[in-house]
């Protein structure tokens, strides 16, 4: 990623925090945080990775609600981030924590070696 795309991704991540927080409290989704934003090279598409904790909705249900309101969220971001084109927002669940837990459990299954170091 270029420096420009990283800066734009950072700005979009920051601009998304308020609308997603408001939406999370509105739909009782607990805490929705933006873990990472990846921009396309032409800055027209932003892939937004979300982490959902707590709340009455499952992470998949919360993601569906966020995706349903993507147009409204995009409009709010447009007012805060000045770009020639407002990027299209694509939301995904961030599965980094599950991956870390899975790798950790696999590593714990490996028996310790008796060879001297």
Strand content: 15-25%
- Give the name of the CATH superfamily: K homology (KH) domain
Mean pLDDT across every amino acid position: 88
Termini Cα gap? 40 Å
Rounded Rg: 18 Å
Number of domains: 1
Second CATH tier, the architecture: 2-Layer Sandwich
At the fold tier of CATH, the topology name is: GMP Synthetase, Chain A, domain 3
Helical segment count: 4
How many extended strands? Answer: 3
What is the helix fraction of residues, given as a range?
40-55%
CATH class: Alpha Beta
Strand order of the largest sheet: 1-2-3
Shape: flat
- Decide which structural class fits the backbone: alpha+beta
Q: Spans with pLDDT under 50 lasting ≥5 residues?
A: none
Major sheet size, sense and barrel closure: 3 strands, mixed
Helix-strand sequence: HEEHHEH
Q: What's this, in brief?
A:
The protein has helices at 3-26, 59-68, 70-80, 96-109; strands at 31-39, 45-53, 88-93.
Q: How would you describe this protein?
A:
This protein has about 120 residues and is of the alpha+beta class. The chain has a single domain, classed as K homology (KH) domain (GMP Synthetase, Chain A, domain 3). It contains four helices and three strands; from the N terminus they run αββααβα. It has helices at about 5-25, 60-70, 70-80, 95-110; strands spanning about 30-40, 45-55, 90-95. A three-stranded mixed sheet has the order 1-2-3. α1 (about 5-25) crosses α3. The longest helix is centred in the N-terminal third of the chain and has 24 residues, at about 5-25. The chain is flat.
């Amino acid at each position: 990623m270029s420096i420009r795309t990283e800066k734009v991704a950072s700005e979009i991540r920051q601009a998304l925090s308020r609308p997603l927080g408001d939406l999370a409290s509105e739909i009782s989704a607990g805490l929705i945080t933006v873990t990472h934003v990846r921009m396309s090279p032409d800055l027209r598409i932003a892939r937004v990775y979300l982490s959902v904790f707590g709340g009455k909705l499952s992470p998949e249900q919360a993601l569906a609600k966020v995706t349903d309101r993507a147009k409204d969220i995009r409009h709010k971001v447009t007012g805060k981030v000045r770009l020639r084109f407002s990027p299209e927002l694509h939301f995904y669940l961030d599965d980094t924590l599950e991956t870390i837990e899975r790798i950790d459990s696999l590593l714990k299954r490996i028996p310790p070696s008796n060879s001297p170091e």
